[in-house]
Every structure is written in structure tokens, then in C-alpha cells.
């Protein structure tokens, strides 16, 4: 019966109780009261139902009271009333308790907001409006917004109506490190209020608060060409429709962006016939406008006071499409209706990476997995292969580890058989394992030459052949070999004849297979990294060489393994289906100098 207490002010016995109860019933549809309205006492003892569920609880509580005092009411009706009250009053508590707890800065922000004397602030003229503390976005809604940010992988968010920043900080927590959130807020006082807590949170730096009327900020953002993945509208209700139209008309919403709108149920007033409340009517008109707008799809989620989720639909499904002078082709619609980024996804694909236990191979394994592929991490070193497979597993990627020496044909065949028996196919073969030994050419031993070629060229060939047979059978496959910038230039001053020559061989192997197998659906390409920053390179012996190399690289730095990740995903994806036998050189311009 906890929920029903919310509506019985006489039961509030301490500040703590009031605070706890308020937390469970945050007012999301709060109405700002301007200077024209007379100042009234604090609202905490005048808590009015503020969501459809709270309205139900209120009505059921009243009905129960009437029934209790009326002898003629059948027991069965009383019992139904009680059950209905239990169901409705328990909902918010249950959601609150089952939702992941908020972070410390959010808890602090909440406490500071609830305990602040907003009436006094208004009386002192520090805010234009008397701001009800219940305006704050609560815990459950805050976590919902954060979840939406994660789900949509948003990087840029716009919030219209920040108040003390609870929603802003919740969303910022869901953004990546380089994500940003612009919060529009009318009252400069609220920026000063929120900023110290933003500064305490590691996510606060992502938030920029713009004070003043939100429409002015929207115009400023539009003229700067800004675009957002998520827009959260939660300010003055009559202006919702203007904010929405401005955002849509000025493309402030990204192609696949989502607009979230708060208070779309407005205490059920949007659908109650006797509504006269201006905000309720504004929200009703807003909902109807959106549901008739061919540019978007919407769904209203009955969370708290209702959150509307609105997304732009494919331009081709809009009625207006046929009236425009547009060319209805794959460039416009996307190939099979998929945008260029969708075409880089590797969902459902099976990949392996040799030499996947460290360095470039590990980076490739992560990249392919992040793009959606299942990944077999192959390495001579069992421990390293297992560790990387575990890393992938931790990220929610299907991965296995295979121990194999790719210079041994039986190991190569076992690798391929293991993957096929586990996952039924091989779509992406990343033949990355290789070794590098240094010696002056006049001193290069046949043993060094053979060892280098056994792994770098013969081993790569065996992998191409074994995986290629599976792929030719499937009629589709992507082979990506790791060659080297050394296939193009002779890197100096280090002496590495066998390495350079073997890598030149990898390029020719790639070109030959790439042209021989393309008509049967198998593409073979290679990546030639420049000098990659690895722990080895920082050894005492190599440090002088690094200085020398840096002066040879237009980019002014060595390659990081992460610089190579997009290339492997591109070559593994259908977006590169017309590319075969290509040597994709990624060396910061070094081969051009
Ligand atoms: C419901 S509260 C926002 C709650 C907030 N989203 C949160 O997470 O706690 C509405 C806020 O909108 C602000 N506001 C109202 N009209 C505005 C306008 N025209 N421009 C910018 N902000 C406005 C108010 O000052 C108030 O802080």
C-alpha cells in the first residue's frame, strides 16, 4: 500500500518521509508558475496525482474510502477495489526498486533539488518562474533515457528543458567519452545550480548548458549546422509542436535520430473527453499532429507521464516522396534498403584471425567482433588466443580460441575444420600471422629465409587455400591478408630482406587469388600497414630507429593498431564486394616520401 500513501498528506510525518515519497512520484508534468500568479506555500504537502497511474491510485483510494463507509457495498466489490489499488499503487515502487540504482552524482543532484527552497529562490527574483521541485526527471525515467542513449548508440543529444540537470546527467552517463549533450534551459539560475554537480561527475564534461529561450538556442544550433541523435523535449508544453517542427524542418535530427517527448499522456488528460487544461490540450494536439505526420513513426510508452518516441521513417515511405523530383535508385534508397553504415555490419558472419593473440591481429579480432561477426581467435600461443577470445566474450561477441601454427598444413586444416564444425561456415578469413627477422642480406641464412617464408608466404597461402575451398563451396567469402608497406618500399635502415620479399609475395598471392576467385564470389585483398607502434618498438635498441622513422612519416607518428581496424571491417563487409586483389596501404603517407 506504499503507493497510496503518496496521496494522503496527513501521513507525512518527517522530511525524510516526504522526500522518499516524492522520489517515488516525481512530477513530470509540472506547470511553471510565473510572476503573475500569487506565491503559495511549498507544494510538498499539496502533492497532486501527476501521472495516469497516480490519478488511478487517487481515485481508487477515494472510492475505497467511500466503499468502507457504506454498508451496502458488497464485499466482492471492496475486494476488487483493493486489488485494483494494490496493482496501481505498487507499480511505481516496483519499477523504482527493480531499476538499476542511480550513480552518486545523480543521487546528490536529486537530493539537492528536492531539498532546495525553490519558493524562496523565486521570491528573491532569481528565477522568472516558481519552479516546482517535482519537475525533476526521476530515477526510472532517467535510467530509461540512459538506456535509450545506449541502445541507439547516440553521440550527440539535445535536451530542451533541463531544470536541475537530472535527465541531462543521466543521458550523459550513457554517452561515449567523446559524446556531447546540449541542454537548453530558460533560467540561468539552474545552470549555476547544476554545474557544480556536473563537475563532480566524470560525465559532466559532456554537457553544455545554453541558457535563454530554447527556440533561440535551436536557431543558433541550426545555423551552425548541428545535428543530434536524440532530442529530448521536456520544456513548456504549448511550444512542443514548435520545437518539433523546427527540429524536423531544419534537420536538427540526424537521419536515424529519435525524438523523445515527455508528458505525452499528461495525467491522462490527452484522452479524457472533459479536459480543459491548456497543457493537456496542447499535448493532445501535439500527439495528434505527430501521429498524422508522414515523416515519422511514433509510439507512446506509458512510463510515468508518458514518453513519446518518434523516429524519422525512410524517406521512400513518405507520401511526399513521389511528389519530389528525386531519383528512386539504390543511391537514394540504399542497397537493399540499407544505408552505407548498415552495409558495413557483419552480423551473422563467421570470421577467423590468425595471429589474433596480440597486436594487429587482436585489434582485427575486436573490430570484426564489434561489427557483428563471430570470431575464431587463432594463435600459436594458446594463452594469448584464449585471453583475446575471453575479451571478446566479455563484450558480448561470440568467440572461440584455436591454437594453430599456420606454417603447418595439418594445423591449418584443423583450424578450418574446427570453425566449420562449430559455426557451419567461414565468411571472413583474416590471414594475419607473420614473423620478422633482421639481418644484412649478405648474411641472411637459408634458415631465416625459410622460416620467414614458411610463415609469411607459404603459411598465408595454405590458409587462403583451406579457407578459400570452403568459401568457393559457399559461393561467398572475404579473404584479407596482412601484407606490409615493405611490399612497396624498402623500409630503412633496418635490414629485413626475407621479410620484405615475403610480404611482396603476399601481395602477388592476393592479386592472383583475388582475380582467380572473384567470379565465384570470393574476394581476396590485403592490408599493408606502415610501422606499427608495438611494445617491442620501445626497446632500448630500437629507440633511435623510431626517431628516424618518424621523420619519414608525413603523418608524424607511427600507426596504432586501431588505425587499421576500419579497413579490415570494410574489406570484410559487403560494402567492398567490388574490390579484389587490392593492397590497401595504411602508412600515414610514408611510402609516398
Ligand atoms: C519539466 S522541467 C525539465 C526537467 C528536466 N528535463 C529534468 O531532467 O529534470 C522543464 C524545464 O523547462 C524549462 N523551460 C520552460 N520553458 C522554457 C523555454 N522556453 N526555453 C528553455 N527552457 C524552458 C524550465 O525552466 C524547466 O526547468
TrEMBL record:
One of its GO terms (biological process) is fatty acid biosynthetic process. Coiled coil: none annotated. Its EC number is 1.1.1.250. Keywords: Fatty acid biosynthesis, Fatty acid metabolism, Lipid biosynthesis, Lipid metabolism, Methyltransferase, Oxidoreductase, S-adenosyl-L-methionine, Transferase. It comes from the Eukaryota. InterPro entries: NAD(P)-bd_dom_sf, SAM-dependent_MTases_sf, SAM_O-MeTrfase, SDR_fam. The keyword Cell membrane does not apply. It is an enzyme of class 1 (oxidoreductase). It holds the Pfam family adh_short_C2. The keyword Lipid biosynthesis applies. One of its GO terms (molecular function) is O-methyltransferase activity. Pathway: Carbohydrate metabolism; D-arabinitol metabolism; Lipid metabolism; fatty acid biosynthesis. Belongs to the class I-like SAM-binding methyltransferase superfamily. Cation-dependent O-methyltransferase family. This is D-arabinitol 2-dehydrogenase [ribulose-forming].
